[in-house]
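Handout, section 3.2

Students often ask what a structure token actually looks like in practice. Rather than define it abstractly, here is a full record for arginine--tRNA ligase. The first block is the sequence as you would receive it.
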Amino acid sequence: MLNEKGLIEESEGARVIFIEGKKIPLIVVKRDGGFNYASTDLTALWYRLNEEKADWMIYVTDVGQREHFEMVFSAAKRAGWLPPNENDYPKASHVGFGLVLGEDGKRFRTRSTEVVKLVDLLDDAKKRCKAALEERGKTKDWTAEELEQTAEAVGYGAVKYADLKNNRLTNYTFNFDQMLSDKGNTAVYLLYAHARICSIIRKSGKDIEELKKSAAIDLAHPDERMLGLHLLQFAEIVEDACTSLLPHLVCEYLYNISEDFTKFYTNCQVVGSAEETSRLLLCEATAVVMRKCFHLLGITPVYKI
């Protein structure tokens, strides 16, 4: 197919496609007649476009593969498989990500220099969270199942969030202590914040669903307005994260509204105030937006800790 379009040329015994601006051609058939990643990726790209009718193909690999996929996509454009304008559909994008480093600044590995398995990290995070929850002494009334579910939600969420909160193009250092801290921009802090909001609503004794039907939010205090304005940015933030393929934008937003809520709750009495109904609804709106962010990040929210 590529040969019929006149794209294939011979070079040092191999069959290649020359890409404008690149010194080295894209090898599609090696000199021994064998195939390689480029031939596989081009074949898969054609199949996804013509058989699966894909509109947007997103290739997620480490940043070291960027040039390879640039050349594959350029070859596909020359073949007429993809439009010349990268913003037109169907399109293909490469999402590169940086390395996870150990505290020694080298690629994250075990002490025996083996690659760390994700399942082991998740299990370890869950165990640490379970121990931390039990140490706090507030789980005496919980069932064993509730403790397991909460430890899993917080532990797994901590690992996911620690990865997603960083710009995917940069390297980051893996640190369990920072990851599982309940202070700063961590999943633990954010899940605690969400649970606290839910606790405020529960302790009010009000039926929040009924309040939604009959009351409105009045953003009179400056901290109420700041929180409300940031909540309204949710759709814009999600769109930016999707179009730029940068999930850390959602993490930044989630942390910022959590900080805004803390400031609001510190300066504005909720339960027992004259503005209780409005402020309870603002609490609920914050919790709803936080849950939507958690869902986008693949994190399970917790309602009590």
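Discussion prompt for tutorial groups: The chain has two domains: 9-97, 159-297. How would you have guessed this from the sequence alone?
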